Amino acid sequence: MVKLIQKKGDFTAKAYWVHDFTKLMDLGGRISHKIGDFSFGSSILWEDFEHDNDKLNYEFDAQYNLLKLVDLSTQFSIIDDGLEQTEDLRAFLFADYSPGFQLPVLGKIKPYIGIDTFAKFAENITFAGINCEPVTNGFIKVEYQISSEKAVEDVFNIQVVYVF
User: Fold this and answer.
1) pTM higher than 0.85, yes or no?
2) By C-alpha distance, which of 122, 124, 119, 125 is closest to 144?
3) Which phi and psi angles does 150 have, rounded to 5°?
4) Beta-carbon neighbour count of residue 26 at 10 Å?
5) Residue 32 to residues 19, 29, 35, 79, 152, Cα–Cα distance (Å)
6) Which are the contacts of 9, defined by CB distance < 8 A and separation ≥ 6?
7) Could you read off the pLDDT of 119-145 as tens digits, one per residue?
């Protein structure tokens, strides 16, 4: 991944190129602005641009920290794959307890809830979980997801990550 970041005052601009060395190659950019506890931004991502199944993602997002207790985030996306019948509108809403709380061994814990819509807002996945930060540069995420689609089972996820 190559990422370029430029900050000027309350504005931030990012450009990035991602290649996973198997087949996928993505190119994108993002511009954001912060005003007090409110921030908003817009981005464009050209997914898998070297192949016939490329997609363009146009996104707008906003985040607000309510009373220094709850981070409220939303993102609206249009995903265009060049086929009119599969163009997808999505919305993502997320809230977490921003200060979190400390527990022995698990470190800082932040509970969160959210919903991710797809199929032009007709379907959704509702989720709840906790993020634990037991060590610097590492986290453990435990999450439960419920899908509105009848054919999809509920999912319980555990992720253990350390960033080198």
Assistant:
1) no
2) 125
3) -65, -35
4) 19
5) 24, 10, 10, 20, 35
6) none
7) 778 889 999 999 999 888 889 999 999
